[in-house]
Amino acid sequence: MDRALKAARTSGSLNLSNRSLREVPNEVYQNFDGASEGGNWWEIVDLQKLILAHNNIEVLKEDLRNLPLLTVLNVSHNRLTQLPAAIGGIDCSNNQLVEIPSSIGQCVELAELKASNNSIAGLPENLACCTKLVKVNLEGNKLTELSDPVISSWSKLTELNASKNLLNGIPESIGRLSRVIRLDLHQNKISSIPTSIKGCSSLVEFYIGINLLSSLPAEIGELSQLSILDLQSNQLTEYPVEACKLHLSVLDLSNNSLSGLPAEIGLMTTLRKLVLIGNPMRTIRSTLVSGPTTALLKYLRSRLPSAQEAEVSTPTKDNIVAMAARLSLTSKEISLGGMDLTSVPLEVCSSNEITKVDLSRNSIEELPVALSACSSLEVLLLSKNKIKDWPGEVLKLLPNLTCLRLDNNPLRQIPMNGFEAVPGLLILDLSGCVASLPGSSAFASLPHLQELYLRRVQLHEVPSDILKLQKLQILDLSQNSLCSIPEGFQNLSSLTELDLSDNNITSLPPELGLLEPSLQVLRLDGNPLRSIRRAILDRGTKGILKYLKDKL
What we know:
Helix 8 (about 390-395) links the parallel strand 15 and strand 16. The chain has helices at about 1-10, 25-30, 150-155, 285-290, 295-300, 305-310, 315-330, 390-395, 535, 540-550, and strands spanning about 15, 50, 70-75, 90, 110-115, 135, 160, 180-185, 205, 230, 250, 275, 335, 355-360, 380, 405, 425-430, 450-455, 475, 495-500, 520-525. It starts with a helix and ends with a helix. It is built from ten helices and 21 strands. The chain is globular and about 75 Å long. It has a domain at about 460-550: Leucine-rich repeat, LRR (right-handed beta-alpha superhelix) (Alpha-Beta Horseshoe). By secondary structure, the chain is low in regular secondary structure.
C-alpha cells in the first residue's frame, strides 16, 4: 500500500483495486498533502486517476472534493449505496446505487458515465448539464423512462446503453442524437419507436430486441448508416417495405409474430445474416427460414415483378468497405479479408481508435504510410497477400502493435534490424515466407514475443537467438528441413507448445526433457526419429519428455 501511495505522489495515478478495502485510505482524500519522507514537495502532483474497483467499499466521503483535478474515478464492483456530492467523472458500475446524485450536473466536462448494474430508478434532471457526454452506460438498472430534456442535451453522444431496464418508451428527443452510433435498448418494456428516430442519422447498430414492439415506423428506413438491427423477441406482425431500403449486414427478426416477409427484402443484398426462427411463417418454407440467408434472399427476389428483380445488384467492393468502416466505429475492428484488394483502402487509415485490421487473402503489395494514423492498432493480419518488402517504415509508426501475421507472402529477406520496428510484438507469423528470415541475433529485438510461427520457411537449423526468448509460449518450426535440435531449448521455460513435425530430425537432445511439466504439446510426427522407439513416441508429450529427462 505504502509503495503504491508513494508512486502516486509523482505519477498522479493510483490503483488500489483488488485489495479487500472497506474504506478509502485517508491519505487519498488528503491529496498527498505534504511531501513524503525523503521526497520533494515540487515533485508531488495532484491525483488525476483513482482506481478502487473490486473492493468492499461501502462509503465515499465528501472529502473527495479535495481532489479537484480528478478526471478518472473507477469504483466499480464495490458495495456503494450512494455517491458523494463532490463526485467527478466516474465508473460506478456493479454497486448498490439507487440514484445518481444531482450534483453530477456540476461535472460539465464529463465525457463518459458508467453506472451499469445498480438499482437506479431515475436520472437527475440536471444531468442535462453534462452536455459533453460521449458515452453513457446505464445497463441493468430500474429506469422506467429517459426524460426528453436529458436526452436532448446529449447532442455529442455516440453510444447509449440503457438495456435491461424497465423503460416503457423512447423519448421523442431521441432524434436529437445525430451523432449516436450505437443504441442499445434491448430487454425493456418499449412498445413503440418514435418517428423521430430518423434523426439518428449516424446510427450503425440498433439493439431493441426483447421488448413489446408490435410495429415499426416507416421512418426507420431512413437510417442510411444502419448496419445491425436487432428486433428479436418482440410482437411484430410485419416488416415495413420502407425498411427494405436499409443497407444492413445483420437483421434479427427471430421470435416475433411474422407470418410472411415483403419480397423487397430480397433486394437487401448486403445482408449476410437474416434470422427468422420462432415466427409463424406461412408463406415461406421452413427449410428456407432455417437455411442460408443467400438462398432466402434469392427466393424472395423471385417473388418480385421481373423489372424489380432486375434492379438487384451485387454489393460493390466500395459498398462492402464502407460498411466495414461503419461497423468499426463501435467494434474498433475492421475486416476486409478475401476481397481481392490490391491496395489498403483509405477507410482503414481514417481512425486512430481501430485496434484490429484484417486484410488477409488479398493482393496487397505494400502498406501505405497513411496506415500510421491507426495509432491504437494492436493486431494486423496480412496473411496471403503479395507483399515483397518488409514494411518496417510503416510498422515502426504503430507503437501499440502486438500481433503481426505476414504468413504466405513473397517476402524478401528482412533487414538485420527489421524487427526493431516492432519491439512490442507478442505474436509473429512468417510461415511460408521462404528466405525472409534475417541474419543471426535479429529475434533478440523481440524480447516480449510469446508466439512465433515459422512453418515452411526452409530452415536448416534453429536460429540460436530464438532460444533466448524467455517469454515464448508457442513455437512452430514445422515443415522445414531441420536435421537436429540444438541444446538450449531448456532455457525456454515458458514454452507450452513446440511443433517440430515434418522435418528431417533423427534425434532429440535429452535436455529437451527439462521442459517438463511446462511443455504441454510436443509434435514430432513426420520425422525419421531413430533414437526413440515407437512405443515411447506413442506415449505422447509427457511420456517423451520423461524418457528424455531420464537419459540425463
